[in-house]
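Continuing the series of single-chain predictions for the mutant panel. This is the parent chain; the variants come on the following pages.
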Amino acid sequence: MYPPPQLLPVIQALKSTYLQWFGFYSNIPKTHRYTLGSHIDNMFIETIEASVTAGFLKGVEKIPYVRLAIRKLDTLKILLLVLYETKSLDNNKYIALSVSLAEAGKMLGGWYGQLTKSSGAGLCSAQQNSPAKAGEK
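Parent structure:
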């Protein structure tokens, strides 16, 4: 028997959270299970997929995939909030998922920060997006 593969910590966190979600998914009311629940399920998978893809790439090639994973994760959090606010997901389940996703989000954010810092890409985008100082044109 082979040992389980070593996963990046962020991928392990996302996988664990997805398994937790998978246990809750079948108990979501039918009104949301096949619409919002299905979309959340797909969003989890897309977030994991983007993270795994980034894990296989080198250097700056990772950046767009880590950004995609962050975007998907942020959307996932909002969709889970909607599911909670419509009472299709109870308080304890929502909290458990939210805490795990927040941790994964911190990991993805740290990964993105390291990548942009080492590539210099963060500097360019930060300068482009920062407001001009008073008096500057």
